[in-house]
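Hi V.,

You were right to ask for the full record rather than a summary. Here it is.
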Amino acid sequence: DAHTPRQVQLFFTRFALRNFVNLHSLTLLSVTNEDILPILYDLPRLPRLTSLRTSSRSSQPLQLGQTLSQLPALADLAVSQGDLFDHNIMLPLHQLKKLDAGNCDFVKLRRLQRIVPSLVSLKIVLQADHQLQLLADADAWSRLERLDLTLISKCGLDLRYASNSENENSHPSRSFLSYP
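Predicted structure:
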């Protein structure tokens, strides 16, 4: 909207998004919550929408949660600035298979396991500014086939993936990412 002032608003005064019933993919770049609210209202009326990509031009996450829960065909989602971690989201989103989760920290990564348990592809930027070990059930990421992970840290970083499947009767299988 910076290079084309008011074009988004002009478009939506002439066209109703809900009329694009065959729309499969929608990209909304450099929007704010104010811009996106009327768009979010119409998204559940798009039964074939399988891909949604958003980026916010403000430092505030976009409030997508409630709407994401109402998009049963949505399989591919890209968000920025932790927009997926809106607490209005109804868990879990089983239909999501591919996710670009934008920036998050290890606490949000753990929550992500509950939000989108059926992922096969995950792209994420982790804020890693202190010592932390994240333990997770191996089953939580068992469907994941692709991981694009970027770690941002102010200190030295070692990334380790390990699987513990020894003696499964007394110790459940676990995977973990850790760095000193």
